[in-house]
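Render this sequence as a predicted structure.
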Amino acid sequence: MKTGKNVLQKTICLILGGGAGTRLYPLTKDRSKPAVPIGGKYRLIDIPISNCLNAGLYRIFVLTQYNSASLNKHIKNSFHFDNYSNGFVDILAAEQTSNNMDWFQGTADAVRQSVRNFAYYDFDYILILSGDQLYQMDIEEVLQDHVKQNADVTIATIPVIASDATSFGIMKVNNENKITSFIEKPAMDILDKWSSDVSDDLKAKGKIYLASMGIYVFSRPALRVLLNENPKAVDFGKELIPDSINRGMNVVSYAYDGYWTDIGDIKSFFEANIALADDIPEFNMFDNENKIYTRARLLPPAKFSGVTFSRAIVAEGSIVQAKLVENSILGIRSRIDYGTIVKNAYIMGNDYFESLEDLADPNKIPMGIGKDCYIENAIIDKHVRIGDNVIIRGNDRLSDMEAEHYVIKKGIVVVNKNAVIPSGTIIGHK
C-alpha cells in the first residue's frame, strides 16, 4: 500500500547537530561536527537534510548547541523555500529557560527540551537523524515501513563486524523484525551472545551484528510516553530505546543494506572523503535521483595548468598548477602552485579569493599551497597558507601528537584552519 504523501505530510524531522565532536578535533575546534566540510563543497549536515528533501520531507528542525555559528550560517545561506511552501529548515538552539537552565545533556534530552518549539505542529511521526553520517537512504520507505508494521518505534539497522559492534547499539530481532533486546556498545567478551541470523553473504563478511544507525522513527504518542515517564533520561540508545522494549512497545528494525558510515573520528572522516574519488564510489555524488543540496555559490569554474590528475575531485573556483594530484579531494577555491605533488589528501580550500596584490606580497605566504611541495596522507583545513618546498607526509609510523599548527592522529596529518606553514617545513616522515 502506497502511503507516501500522507506519511510525509504527517512527519517532522529532527536532526541532532549539537555534539562537541571531540574525536574530530582539530576540525571541530571552531565549528560543530555537522558543519565540517566534506566532499570538497558540502557540509556533513547537508547529507541528512538532502535525504529528507529527496524523499519529499520538508519540515526539518536542526538542533544545535556546540560551536554552532558556522552551522547556523550555512543552514541560513543554503536552504530556502518559496512563500507558497510549508517547507522549512529551522534551527532549534539549546537555550536556558525559566524551567531549565541546563544545556542539552544528550540526544533524548535535546529532543525533550525542544518539544515546546515543535509540539504545536500537526504531525503523527517524528523522524530523528544524526547530523554526522554519510549515506543515501530512501526516507519515505522507512516511514512507510513504520506505518505498515504499526510500530511505536522504528530503528534503522545495518549489519557490522565484531570490531565495529563495540562502538554501536546492538540488537536482537525476531523473524517479524521486532526488536526483542538492545544493548549499547557491548564489550567484546559478551559479543558472541548478540549475533544475529543474517544472509550467507553477510556471514562470509563477518557482518553478523545488527547495529543501530542512530536513525529513529517514533509515533508521537510513544515518544511522549518515553520522554514524560523518563524525565531524567538523557540518551536514546542507553535509556529510552531499552525502556521502549521493556515496556512492550512495538519496536521494529528497518534493515538497511546500502552504503553508510559514521563519521566518528579523523581516520573515518579521512577515508570517507578519499573514497569519494574512487572510479565507482560507494557513496554516489552523481546520482540524479539523490541530489546533495548545499549552499549555491556563484563561483568560476576550476582552472588547471600543467597538472596530471588521477582519481581526483576538484571543486569550483580552484586554480591548480601542480605537478600531480592523485586520489585526493580539492575543495572550493583551492590554490596549488607549480611543481607540487598531492597524494591521498583532502584539501578543504578557502571561503574567498585573495587579490593579485595579496598574492604578490613578498612579506606573506599566499593562501593555498606553494611551489614544489609534497602533501600525502593529510587533511588541510580552510584558509591554510603553505610556503614553498614544504613536506607534509602522514603515515602509520607516526605517533599521535599535537603541535601549534597541526595535529597527527592515526598517521594522518591535520593542518589547522588558518595555519601558516613556512617554506621548507617538514611535517611527518620523508
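Summary. The domain at 303-428 is CATH 2.160.10.10 (UDP N-Acetylglucosamine Acyltransferase; domain 1). The radius of gyration is 23 Å.
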